Amino acid sequence: MFLPVLATRQTTDQITTVNLADNTGTPMHLASGFLYGIPDAPEQISDSFYENMGFNYGRGSGAQLAAPARGWIFGLTEFKNRFESAVSNYDTARRYNAKFILLLNDLWGADGTQPTGSVFPGDDGDWDNYDSFIVNVIAGINSNSMFTDLAVDIWNEPDAGTLFWNGNQEQWLTMWSRGYEAFRASLGTTVQLFGPTLAGAPETTNTWWTTFLAQIASDDTVPDAYVWHLEGSTADVNDDLQTNVPILDSMLSSHGLATKPIVIDEYGVFAEQCPGGSAWWISRLERYNVPGLRGNWLSGTELHDFFASLLWKSDPTDATATGYWTNGDYQVYQYYNQMMTGHRVATTGSIDRLMDSYATVGTDKVRILVGGRQVIGTWQVTVSSLSSVGLPTSGTLDITTFQFSFTGSHTGNVGAPTNLGVVGHAYTGNSVSFPIFQTDTTTTWAFEFAVA
Q1: Dist CA 61 CA 133 (whole Å)
Q2: Any idea which of 11-15, 142-146, 154-158, 332-336 has the lowest mean pLDDT?
Q3: Alpha-carbon span 203 to 439, nearest angstrom
Q4: Helix H or strand E segment including 136
């Protein structure tokens, strides 16, 4: 909870800062995408659920659908039926002006449920099957006019053991270049190509990354965005853009490659999909100007529903049932979309990397969303340059606190955040500080005060 007396238990490593004088641009709500989570039946989930949270990025291609829609390796009809799911999800995304990513591994049928011994692209040196697959994918894109804001993940997480890939790195790299060149030859740059889409973040010791960068530099198959996933341990410094971005920049430079946009098209483990965890990821993605899509930890028909665990309904086993409600995590995204307008300002996360903040300056108020990474303890927010929003350099600042609870966890029915009231904070030196008392690992907070 939030109290008016500054606690002394936090250290200098536990302070997140906001600089109101540093305008970092217009809010684009970069964290408001998710993997799958969209029913194939159009309008099954009503417009308001998409619009209120600012949905702007989707990703899917029929993973885990049963026969007769299991993908390419089960025959052309099963491929076409699975592709229909991708088209439906793409059309839904475009309805809300959202971008969309196709996953070729799922269209192939390598979605983690494929039977042992399934064929993969290039097995035994045979590429004819893969070439035919790519021809059919391109034909599907053309026949369905999927040209606006579409990207293709040429393969998903080949480094994740045998879950989605059963070949070696050389086979994967050959597949990458072969697919890349076929898409470029047929579609030019109309459709973006994403890669390497690895489960592991860029590291100089990760051979999936080093061999990939060497190959794209040598054969000029450079993706339009560098993509990986951040779904590791909250204690792992490599599961963090703060670590990843400078490492990638250095690796690109060493291979003579230019920087490109970054997309994290899966972020957050299931335990982090709560108000505190989501606010932490929002803060990180916004700071580095990186679009991000929530990971999806559901399976079967539930994978194609519930906005990647932001919604629930009374009968989750009924794939076509409606009657949805929002959980506490959804309320964070709704606040982020609807209330955090105006312009963004610079923030820093705590040195211990466990607390972060995202802040905007609107025409009426400063709004600060904070989020902890599965932590309990005391942290601090320090807001500087108050005079830049017309406030005096010293005095008392009235701050309203809103609490985002996770009552009922992922299946809970939770409404708007709780207004905890106003507390006056005395300050000097053109900055104000106040504590965050984090008493559980899921709750989070937003703070608001008026501009002059």
Answers
A1: 14
A2: 11-15
A3: 35
A4: helix 128-143
